[in-house]
Amino acid sequence: MDVFQIGSYGTFKVRKLRKDEKVKSFDCGDDELNDFLLNEAAPYRKYLLAVTYVFENVETKEIVGYFSLANDKISLTDFVNKTEFNRFRKQRFVNKKRIKSYPAVKICRLGVSESFHGKGIGTILLDFIKSYFIIENKTGCRFITVDAYSNAIPFYHNNDFQYLRKEEDDITTRLLYYDLNDIA
Asked: Residue 36 class from Cβ within 10 Å (0-12 exposed, 13-18 middle, 19+ buried)?
């Protein structure tokens, strides 16, 4: 179990949301993210679509953040054309490792309680996710992906995520990735 001491706020841990566990209250300031944790996380887990983890105060059991993960891949279909995909993979792989898709984990949702905004919780959660897939390489996962809301893009950029494509049609979200091989 990973335990984190956050200043005078206390001791926190990341744990998997239990099957059929119902979160009674959480507010990150985004109704869609709140609704997912409060109402959708359990069904997503039940139907094997995503697994949700909470970041909670060890003593008070208050949930101050959460994230949800699902399997993903980066493939030719993520790019405008084959040339763009080939540029991407040539930068990251030797010729022998050029395949048509590369394993990834998707951050489906990530939210931090409004009372903890600006305290570094989001970065702690991203660092946890990065280390979770590096330590003992549990799944052979190379990338972390996220469809980031446009207002969250600076946060992800500050945590070393990059645009997968230079331009996208959808202006509400952008597909970003982090290469786990970049961890020194």
From this structure: buried
